[in-house]
Each structure stands twice: as C-alpha cells, then as structure tokens.
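Hi C.,

You asked whether I'd gotten around to modeling the 189-residue construct. I have! Everything is below, sequence then structure, no commentary in between.
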Amino acid sequence: MNDRTIASLSALALALAAAPALAADYVQAPGSTLAFGGMYQGEAFSGRLPGFDTRLSFDPADPASARLDVTIPMAGATTANPDYDSEMRGEAFLSVVAFPQARYTASGFRKLDDGSYAADGMLSLHGVEKPVTLTFTWTPGPKPLLAGRATVRRLDFGVGAGDWADTDLIPNEIAVSTRVFFAPVAGNR
C-alpha cells in the first residue's frame, strides 16, 4: 500500500468511528399492554386500552436521537365494568365518537440518573394536545421491552365534563402504564 491509500483508509476509519450510532427501528410485538388507573369516590379502578400501535426508533447509547409514536383507538377503552365503560366512552369523558383516537409522540429522550429514560412528548387526546412525560426502563434482547409510566391530568384534556369535573369524585391525575414488547423492523441493522 502506498501512503495515499493508507491515509485514505485512516480517514475512512476515523470517519466511521466518529459517526453517530444508528438507532434501531422497532414495531410493537404481541403481548404488549397499555393500562390506566385512578380513583372513583375513594375506590380504585383500572382499565386497558387494547389495539394500540407503537413505533420506536431507539439506541440506548444515543437517547437524544430517539422517536416514539403511539396511536390509541379509544372505543376499546375498558375497565371491565359495563356501567363505567359506557360513561367513560360517552360525551362527558372520552367522547369516542367525536375523538376516536389518541396519539402520543416524542422525540429526543433523556437518560435519567437511575438508568431509566424520559420521553418528553405530546399527547393528543379528546381534541387537545398537551405535554406528557413518559418515564421508562429498557430491557434489550431479542424481544426488547419498554416498561413505562406517565401521569395524565384528565381535566387538561377536557375529560370529565360537568359534575365529573369534581376532583373529589375522580382525581385529576390518571396513572398510565405500559409494557411494550418490540420486534425489529425488517432490514434493521
């Protein structure tokens, strides 16, 4: 090899070493859950949001380059209590006919001191878009897992009108939790 070839190869090696890590792209895999919970007149309730779809671009070594997109069909929201579900899907709460889908998007995650991550994203719910932070852990492997939690202030989104706006009946804060298993997108690195 001549000096020019060695210099070119050295420059290429330096460029590759300095190149940012590429995030892996993932789609939601079976077994994933999205749940919510709160209190109603002092009694705990919980529910599920089936049928949601998650797309993620994430490299734990470079969380600032991450992107998350979750679509949530609201008509399936259930507490497994027909009385609660009917009211929850109705006009006083989720208005699923007028607002059939919620969406959460985030880009540029932060790594927290305890090793978990935070996604400062935007939730579009009930025709209102507001910031919501999702904190989560990431378990890598052949079927990576994102396990996260967020708090949604329902009244910020207009969920719970009239008498239901009374936070003595239902507190403003609704806990949301998720366990999303992922599969790499075909052609992923």
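If it helps when you're writing up: The mean pLDDT is 89.

Thanks,
B.
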